[in-house]
User: Which sequence fits this backbone?
């Protein structure tokens, strides 16, 4: 479904990605784990067109999207839930969700999808007219995911959905990610919380300073000595 | 009472023009965090195009106004494309200097084409004096108020209730995330310049007729006043710009009535200094936190 081949991305003169290759098959949850600053976020930002790679290629469903602008990539079915949630703070829950459907014109489908988001996240339904900036971190994360679902994505990119949230809420959000996946959406999940991420993913990649150093099935990665020591706390 | 009422009415007319200019500043600041110092020159361009359409082409007012707005809007969008877009990833200071450069450039182009002399701008319709109770005004002043009101209501509707307006608000709140929603950010920014410039041009045409004067340097002071009004209302805040313009217009005319007309500009800039010192977020602005 998604094939990334040797992408290199620069921030000014700094090489943030030094040749990343990875693959995502339809229906999978794939996770990208690694320490802060390893380049996980940059990988997602390159995928969704916010930054341009200087080398390498990105193929999605057989189509080239290496140089496509973000709005085209959204239309092709890739939705990105950015790090830190980034809900539109001065807009209501409903307005945020409507922005998720910005590229769509099927009014009935949009209404249907909004109901589906409210079913997945009943908390959002209770707060539909509240300004997003005044909600708790967990609620904002739910909104950011719901907003991405409004694009009707085939591939969902999630950047640190556990960041800054209480363990109970993290568990709740990860259950919902699994549910979204079970309903047919492929997921590429970036996480620092390697334990949570590997527990729901089929396959994982380990990143270190702009490179992928290891890839395997989640089960194998959880047993790997190096991974256990570096990312799973023993 | 009569004098006070008269000054209130005059202040309202001046203030509505300031409000139209302030809206462009505040909308552009909203999407780019840029003080577009070339905005006053767009107002001047609007006045000149209006003048030419009325005196040379002999168009009626209702045709000249929208065409002048359109022409100035195209100039505004071109300025954005040429002078600001290439600097999108540069520092804010670089863009600001580019804006000052554009301001000087446009003024000099106007000087080169039209010369430094002030031209008179006779309204293309009969202006009659009106006496409403103790208040004296004329149809042109009331028309100015009406034009400003219609445009502000229209803008409010556009920003609050249309998809385009929603895209503009999204880009103002978080540009990258707006792009992730499938919004074409560059097109939305261009549209913001288009709308802001057309409002300034409308103010230019109306004020040009009100004072019966059009000159290449006419944008400098109203441009600064529009900026003051935008800051007073809370930069980035659209209702704030409308309120700030009206309040500034009223404060100026009241101050002139109490002191003397030489104090007009001093009052505006004293307001700017006081706002920056004591309430930098302005009358309606809430967000002052710096984006990282």
Assistant:
């Amino acid at each position: 479904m998604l094939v990334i081949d040797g992408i290199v991305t620069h921030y000014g003169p700094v090489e943030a990605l030094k040749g990343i290759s990875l693959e995502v098959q339809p229906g999978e949850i794939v996770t990208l784990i690694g320490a802060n600053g390893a380049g996980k976020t940059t990988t997602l930002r390159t995928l969704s067109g916010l930054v341009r790679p200087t080398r390498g290629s990105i193929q999605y469903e057989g189509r080239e999207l290496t140089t496509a602008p973000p709005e085209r990539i959204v239309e092709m079915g890739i939705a990105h839930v950015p790090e830190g949630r980034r809900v539109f703070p001065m807009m209501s829950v409903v307005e945020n969700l409507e922005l998720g459907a910005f590229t769509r014109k099927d009014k009935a489908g949009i209404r249907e999808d909004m109901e589906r988001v409210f079913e997945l996240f009943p908390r959002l339904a209770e707060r539909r007219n509240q300004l997003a900036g005044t909600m708790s971190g967990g609620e904002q994360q739910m909104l950011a995911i719901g907003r991405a679902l409004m694009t009707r994505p085939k591939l969902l990119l999630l950047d640190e959905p556990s960041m800054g949230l209480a363990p109970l809420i993290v568990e709740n959000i990860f259950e919902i990610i699994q549910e979204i996946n079970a309903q047919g959406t492929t997921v590429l999940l970036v996480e620092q919380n390697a334990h949570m991420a590997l527990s729901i993913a089929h396959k994982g990649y380990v990143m270190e300073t702009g490179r992928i150093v290891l890839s395997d099935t989640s089960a194998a990665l959880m047993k790997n000595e190096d991974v256990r020591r570096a990312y799973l706390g023993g | 009472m009569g004098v006070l009422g008269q000054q209130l009415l005059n202040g309202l007319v001046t203030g509505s023009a300031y409000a139209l200019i302030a809206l462009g500043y505040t909308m552009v600041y909203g999407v780019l965090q840029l003080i577009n110092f070339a905005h006053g020159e767009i107002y001047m361009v609007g006045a000149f195009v209006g003048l030419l359409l009325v005196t040379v082409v002999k168009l009626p007012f209702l045709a000249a106004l929208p065409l002048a707005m359109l022409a100035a809007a195209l100039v505004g969008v071109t300025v954005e494309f040429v002078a600001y877009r290439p600097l999108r990833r540069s520092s804010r200071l670089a863009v600001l200097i580019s804006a000052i450069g554009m301001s000087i450039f446009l003024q000099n182009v106007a000087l080169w084409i039209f010369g430094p002399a002030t031209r008179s701008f006779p309204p293309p319709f009969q202006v009659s004096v009106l006496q409403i109770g103790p208040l004296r005004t004329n149809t042109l002043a009331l028309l100015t108020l009406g034009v400003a009101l219609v445009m502000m209501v229209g803008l409010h509707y556009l920003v609050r209730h249309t998809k385009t307006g929603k895209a503009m608000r999204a880009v103002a709140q978080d540009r990258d995330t707006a792009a992730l929603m499938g919004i074409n950010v560059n097109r939305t920014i261009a549209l913001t310049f288009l709308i802001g410039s057309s409002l300034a041009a409308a103010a230019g045409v109306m004020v040009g007729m009100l004072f019966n004067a059009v000159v290449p340097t006419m944008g400098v002071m109203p441009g600064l006043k529009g900026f003051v009004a935008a800051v007073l209302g809370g930069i980035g805040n659209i209702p704030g710009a409308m309120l700030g313009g009206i309040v500034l217009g009223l404060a100026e005319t009241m101050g002139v009535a109490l002191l003397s007309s030489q104090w007009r500009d001093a009052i505006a800039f004293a307001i700017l200094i006081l706002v920056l010192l004591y309430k930098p977020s302005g009358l309606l602005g809430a967000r002052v936190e710096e984006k990282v």
